[in-house]
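From the shared-data thread, chain only:
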Amino acid sequence: MATIESSLLNIGYLETLSYQQTPLHRLDPRAKLLTTLVFIIAVVSFGKYEITGLIPFMIYPVALIAVGNLPPGYLARKILLAAPFAFFIGIFNPLLDRAVLVQLGPVGLSGGWVSFASIMIRFTLTVSAALILIASTGLNAVCLALERLGAPTGFVVQLLFLYRYIFVLTDEALRLMRARSLRSFQGRGLGFKVFTYLIGQLLLRTLARAQRIHLAMRSRGFDGTIRLLRPLEFHLQDAVFFLGWSSLFLLLRWYNLPHQLGHLLTGLAP
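Structure, as tokens:
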């Protein structure tokens, strides 16, 4: 249970990072959201055998981490936490695609290994961009930006509630597990049958808690509208941030700079 509680606090720390006052944090959430979407679309649009073209895209998360004063070690741990999903998706590629695609001296790399490396690089880039967006903006501001950009209000509110009240659900689960452990003597009450009863109790407690939360929100005037203390204002620096990074992403997408640089150096070599 201590591990679960520490994990929850670790997740909440991502939201705490959005309270900083850096040039990145002061940008309009819509500019950061749109830039992140362009970045993700550009990264995932590459072919399955592309590796060198993806490498220059690392400048975006590295630059934002530096400007936003974000902890790279914390973000790297979050990426590693989700890495097994991408790993198990791509690890079967070497078994299905065995044709040699790259020859590195005596070692030949099959297309499966190249596509597996491409999947892992794209996963790292996209997940790091999403984490940086939350850490530099906060989920409240991201949801408000989605609503202002035309996303359905019902979807935005549900997304916000899913994030906010998953902590309430986990807190109820921790209370049930703690009560069970305090009432379990000599290993009794720790079996699967009792565990199924706890799931039912958790469902009932969650429904009752949700009703109380809904009544409390309605009594305080909640009407489905997301509000922030700081209003959204799109300034010149926001437009420069979005247009500048988006232009760079398009340039990197259509021109393989490492490939072009390699041809240039090879042509200049004696």
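The beta strands are 100-104, 107-110.
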